[in-house]
Amino acid sequence: MRWTGLIAATMLAGAAPNAVGAQALPAPQQQHQAIEGGVPLTPENRAHVQRAAAEVLFWNQEQRDQNFPHMEKLFPGHVVRAGKKPLALPPGPPLPIAAATVDAFIKAQNVAGLIVLQQGAVRLERYARGLSREGRWTSFSVAKSFTSTLVGAAIRDGHIKSVDEPVTRYIPDLAGSAYDGVTIAQLLTMTSGVKWNEDYTDPNSDVARMFSATVPAGVDPTVAYMRTLPREAAPGSKWVYKTGETNLIGVLVGNAIKRPLANYLSEKVWKPYGMADDAFWMIDPAGHEVGGCWMEGGHGIVAPEWFEDATKPHADTGRGPGFGYGYQWWTYPEHRFGAVGVFGQSITVDRASKTVIVIVSAWPKATDSDYSKQRLAFLGELFKAAKGPLTKPPHRRR
User: Fold this and answer.
1) Bigger pLDDT: 61 vs 269
2) Closest by CA position to 6, among listed 120, 142, 150
């Protein structure tokens, strides 16, 4: 089983983040209309939803613990349907790491769920903070990597020609803005050159304000905000992390495929690869999936060699040798890569040992360099413990 298959398999576990969470609804799925989930999105509560989205970054610890497992109670969204044949995750040999080491990390980082999957077998699985295997947890920006994968699927299906096309071809409302001349690849790698403030502690930052501005009739809220931003560098010359640009990718794919992203994700990933539960994907005030907030090489699902290209470093993030950014994937030393969300959410993949580690947490801060360093060190210990192939690959059944 190739490493890309491990990602999809890991997402079946209760600890794994979905594209914001998971919720089962009995309504039948329609071809061009996503199943609604969460609180209703109405003209009356639209302003409330906008305020709540901005306030997430400033919740206290009690609010984080209470709401991260139940985001569908606060926000509207679309349901990503799972199939009828979930992929089994059999137990494997316990990972040779001291329980005290794991316990200390869980306590220090406010971890709610931790799972280590190697060659399709679960080698370590732990839960805390009220989460269980059957529970759900918000993924935040881990969803960025799912949105990137849908670009690869749209190219394979002929809806998008290539990542070298201009963004404005698929989002005409960006014409005349700083996104003129920016390619899809530059959007994926966050090297558009457009100025952006991702400071999670600043209520006036772009990431906090992008859904609070007045939106002209007929214009997508993300597009309405992003087209007001100035350019600070030539396209392709500077990397800046921008959640708003992942939302633009979601708009771009939606315009290209002309259907809800939730339906496309269900068709391309959730059902074919045996996800055990439905996912809940939060939507913006216009009813579109928020793109910012897997598969046996992706054969037949994404464009050829998509994952190899998407998970290699295309941009320098300034963190030092071996660290970079791909197509909405973070890249690390030792040829590893992963998806990361605020408040301690992460998926990290080690190609050499065919190991995937998923962590969901409720950090006291959206981002923290000390917490990140501690997590990186702990991941290194887990990958070291998983080195070497299992003596016998587990029997995996659907």
Assistant:
1) 61
2) 120
**Residue 86 has what DSSP assignment?**
P
Query: CB 158: neighbour CB atoms within 10 A?
Result: 8
* 141 alpha carbon, distance to own chain's centre: 5
Tokens of 226: 């992003």
Q: pLDDT confidence of 85, banded at 50, 70, 90?
A: confident
For residue 392, what are its two tokens? 């016998």
Q: Are 224 and 267 in contact (CB under 8 A)?
A: no
Q: What three-state secondary structure class fits 389? A: coil
Query: In b/e form, how buried is each residue of 206-216, taking b as 16+ CB within 10 angstroms?
Result: bbbebbeeebe
Whole-angstrom distance, CA of residue 383 vs CA of residue 95: 10
Percentages (nearest 5) of helix, strand, coil residues in the chain: 35, 15, 50
Cα–Cα distance measured from residue 29 to residue 79, given in angstroms and rounded to the nearest whole number: 9
CA distance 257 to 251: 10
Residue 179 CB: number of other CB atoms within 10 A?
Answer: 27
* CA distance linking residue 137 with residue 121, whole number of Å: 22
Give the burial class of 365: count Cβ atoms within 10 A of its Cβ; 0-12 exposed, 13-18 middle, 19 or more buried.
Answer: middle
In this predicted structure, the answer to whether residue 298 has a pLDDT above a threshold of 70 is no
Backbone angles phi, psi at 105, to 5 degrees: -65, -45
Give the C-alpha distances (Å, rounded to integers) separating 204 from 280, 292, 373: 28, 19, 28
Percent of the chain with pLDDT over 90: 59
* Angle at 297 (CA atoms; ends 295, 302), nearest 5 degrees: 80
Spatial separation of the C-alpha atoms in residues 298 and 156, rounded to whole Å: 10
pLDDT (mean) for 295-300? 54
What span, in angstroms and rounded, lies between the C-alpha atoms of 199 and 230?
A: 17
With a pLDDT cut of 70, the percent of the chain lying above it is 81
Q: What is the pLDDT of residues 370-398, one digit of tens each?
A: 999 999 999 999 999 998 666 555 544 44
Residue 55 neighbours by CB under 8 Å, 6+ apart: none
Residue 287: pLDDT over 90: no
φ and ψ of 5, to 5 deg: -70, -30
Select the more confidently predicted residue: 274 or 18.
274
